[in-house]
Design a protein that fits this description.
UvrA_DNA-bd, 30 helices, repeat, DNA binding, Rossmann fold, alpha/beta, about 15% strand, 29 strands, Helicase, Ruva Protein, domain 3
């Protein structure tokens, strides 16, 4: 098989590179953050593979990356972080089709009680018949005891996404929304002083007038400025539920509700919120701000209707099965298989085989602790990517180029071998597997490596090493090789801290088993453990949620009152808006626009700071609305972003672009890296303070105008950390950070540790959830959870300094540090 040949690649920061990549091999791309790995693997190789494939099918005019040519390619599939369905109905079970197989098993083998003779009957033992009409068909079955005819429960009845299967109360969501009154109504205030949270400005005045008209209609007197807490029961009913509500009709049965606003018609605060959320399809900021999600009172969160959730296979109901871990599900399947007779086994053999294969592969990538009812929107980027990776092996395609971005993200070192096994299986199916990775074990397993650098941004973009890991170690120009050749550094003495401790007592959330742990103040602490062991639950659902909880309760937290603020930096995406970029999010763009707006040339042309915003009309290109590109719908394929034909990617009108600062237009500035902005804005302290912090968190290579949606999970998280440091600099804070080294090369990790150490030396305390061995070894204190994931986790396995954990034979983490 001929090698993939890339000639003259100049996309992004790539410096006219040429490269041959062996086909049907596991190939790792590595290098510092911003060195060009993603640009080469995704923006160049993936893009050109797709372009050639689609053009072969007649789709012309697709964007060609900046290369002379690329040869011996084939269709490519990329498996990225954070690309899972954000629909609340999507779960691990539905996304993997494991739930579909289980529905088929329940259709074939389920047992239920006959509504006529009250005896237990099995679907497999009952005679069936199909009744068909023009629009529909139904399957009926006859009780094998009394011959009573009833509708058979088919796969459709076991889906919570169908009318036949879903709980009628929650429509199959398992939860119902309730208004969170404390978020909406600030009862200690009057309406005039802002008691209703979302009544603002003129709208507030309008609503207050309408409400007073309603009070007048019902003959209720009220003094302006009265706190809502002092309203009568009737006044509150009108305020919250409106004049058409059952509450108000019951309070005033003889008064006809008013018909006009002037006459006293008032919708009600809660009623208004329900209407708004219905109009927006339930997917809005309102839901997050003013509503609580509570377990459905009818199905108790099981999502199916009463009959569908009552039937059993092997004495187990389907909702019970989807709530256990995949490892437990695997054991249930073995018991089922052993219990089946010949005819019954034939009915479900194909589904059992498919289940065994799918579950084995997901367990192999370290996700055996997940349950099928886990919503995909709650998965981390690494979890979502590994599920997709496991699913790719269901395909019998060969000759494909698979491209992956750090498949070991969020994975404990013990589970990395499972990922490597999957990658090799994909390769052995005669596919080419290209992986962006920093994990040393994956590098060792690779057939070939490509090291990019030597630095980030404009200092990267060159091939500085290639070959096997051993070849890379011997190559003088390779940054990765130089790191691997180093002797291990001796760790400095562990900090003792201030002597004070943060203590979590009797933590019982999710899988935490009534644990008590301590974290020294003034130290870098690391919470470790295998995937699903309870790390994030401990830090982000127990520790972060309370400043000081009451004595004697579960999940008691003490010691956090020592800090000015608790700052949490999690892995959740920064923003879904394509208009948010590094400059706007960090706050530096406001200062840059001020500078441009005050330039003499701008003043002479009547151009102000607002004209340099791509979010408002006036100075931006209206064809692309300041984005620089327009979206081309490709129907069955991913939408393509095409350079705007009007502004040619320059985002603004010619007048605005003609205004220059130090020789740079506003679009030139947005195209600068963070590092490049330092000399350009050297006289502006506010700008320098922000950009220098971005550089300190390892983001100096990012472009100021880079859209947040293009950032990796780790980049987004470090940008969040920088923004928090900009806002809270000089305070004694407790920082809780979720896997901050995601996407970082080992050398970048060293630099990031220097930043964390400076934060601690300045008076803050840092607790990180991490798998990275460099960070764990460099910590002052470790809390190791486990021993497994899911129900097998949630215990404290080890606690103390890295030396203490290393000496603890029970600690899996200790074996790797």
């Amino acid at each position: 098989m001929k090698n993939i040949i890339i000639k003259g690649a100049k996309e992004g920061n790539l410096k006219d590179i040429s490269l041959e990549i062996p086909r049907n091999r596991l190939v790792v791309f590595t290098g510092l953050s911003g060195s060009g790995k993603s640009t080469l693997a995704i923006d160049t190789i993936y893009q050109e593979c797709q372009r050639q494939y689609l053009e072969a099918m007649g789709y012309q005019g697709l964007h060609k990356p900046k290369i002379e040519y690329m040869r011996n390619v084939s269709p490519a599939i990329r498996i990225m972080q954070n690309e899972y369905n954000k629909n609340p109905r999507s779960s691990v079970g539905t996304a993997t089709d494991i739930y579909t197989d289980l529905r088929m098993i329940y259709e074939k083998l389920s047992k239920r009680i006959c509504p006529n003779c009250s005896r237990e009957i099995a679907s497999a033992d009952c005679k069936e018949e199909i009744e068909k009409s023009e629009d529909d068909f139904r399957v009926y079955m006859y009780c094998n005891h009394c011959n009573h005819r009833m509708e058979k429960l088919t796969r459709t009845h076991f889906s919570f996404n169908t009318r036949e299967g879903a709980c009628e109360t929650c429509q199959g969501l398992g939860k119902v929304l309730t208004v969170d009154e404390t978020s909406v109504v600030h009862g200690q205030l009057s309406l005039e002083a802002g008691a209703i949270d979302f009544w603002k400005h003129k709208y507030k005045d309008y609503q207050i007038t309408a409400l007073h008209n309603a009070f007048k209609h019902y003959g209720i007197a009220i003094e302006p400025g009265t706190p809502v807490n002092e309203f009568t029961k009737e006044q509150k009913a009108i305020l919250l539920y409106g004049v058409d509500s059952a509450q108000v009709r019951g309070a005033f049965p003889k008064i006809v509700p008013p018909k006009t606003v002037e006459g006293g018609r008032f919708e009600g605060v809660f009623t208004s919120l329900w209407r708004r959320i219905a109009e927006k399809g339930g997917n809005s900021r309102l839901q997050d701000t003013y509503f609580d999600s509570v377990v459905c009172p009818d199905c108790k969160g099981e999502r199916l209707n009463a009959l569908s959730r009552s039937v059993t296979v092997l004495d187990t109901r389907l909702p019970e099965l989807v709530s256990v871990s995949l490892q437990e599900l695997s054991r249930w399947m073995l018991r089922l298989k052993d219990s089946l007779g010949g005819e019954q086994f034939i009915l479900v053999e194909v589904y059992l085989l498919d289940l065994e294969t799918k579950i084995r592969r997901i367990v192999a990538v370290g996700l055996g602790y997940l349950s099928l009812d886990r919503q995909t929107i709650t998965l981390s980027g690494g979890e979502a990517q590994r599920i997709k990776l496991a699913a790719t092996l269901d395909s019998d395609l060969t000759g494909i180029i698979y491209i992956m971005d750090e498949p070991t993200i969020s994975l404990h070192p013990k589970d990395t071998h499972g990922i490597i096994t999957i990658l090799k299986e994909l390769r052995d199916l005669e596919n080419t597997v290209l992986v962006i990775e920093h994990d040393l074990d994956v590098m060792k397993a690779a057939d070939y490596m490509v090291d990019l650098g030597p630095g980030s941004g404009k200092y990267g973009g060159e091939i500085i090493g290639k070959g096997t890991l051993e070849d890379i170690k011997k190559q003088d120009g390779s940054v990765t090789g130089a790191y691997l050749r180093r002797r291990p550094q001796k760790h400095k003495a562990f900090r003792k801290g201030t002597g004070a401790f943060i203590e979590v007592k009797n933590a019982k959330v999710h899988n935490l088993k009534d644990i008590t742990v301590r974290f020294p103040v003034g130290c870098l602490s690391c919470v470790t453990g295998v995937s699903g062991s309870g790390k994030s639950t401990l830090v982000f659902e127990v520790l972060s949620k309370s400043r000081e909880t009451q004595q004697g309760t579960s999940n008691q937290v003490t010691g956090t009152g020592l800090f000015d603020q608790i700052v949490t930096v999690e892995q959740a995406p920064l923003a879904r808006m394509k208009r948010s970029n590094v400059a706007t999010y960090s706050g530096v763009y406001t200062e840059i626009r001020k500078i441009f707006g005050e330039l003499k040339d701008a003043v002479d042309k009547g151009i102000t700071a607002k004209h340099f915003s791509f979010n408002t009309k006036g100075g931006r290109c209206e064809n692309c609305e300041g984005l620089g590109y327009v979206t081309s719908n490709m129907l069955f394929f991913e939408d393509l972003e095409v350079l705007c034909p009007v502004c040619h990617g320059n985002r603004f009108t010619d007048d605005v672009l003609s205004v220059k600062y130090a020789g740079y237009s506003i679009n030139d500035v947005l195209g600068m890296s963070v590092e490049d902005a330092v000399p350009v804005f050297k006289g502006h302290s506010k700008i320098l303070k922000i950009v220098k912090l971005l550089i300190e968190v390892g983001l100096g290579y990012l472009e100021l105008g880079q859209t947040l949606t293009t950032l990796s999970g780790g980049e987004g998280q470090r940008l969040k950390l920088a923004q928090e440091l900009i806002t809270h600099q000089g305070k004694h804070n407790l920082y809780l950070i979720d896997e901050p080294t995601t996407g970082l090369h080992p050398i970048d990790v060293e630099n990031f540790l220097n930043l964390l150490n400076r934060m601690i030396d300045a008076g803050s305390t840092v607790i990180v959830v991490e798998h990275n061995q460099q960070v764990i070894k460099a910590s002052d204190w470790i809390v190791d959870l486990g021993p497994g994931g899911g129900i097998a986790g949630g215990n404290v396995i080890a606690e103390g300094t890295p030396d203490d954990v290393r000496a603890n034979k029970k600690s899996i983490t200790g074996r790797y540090i």
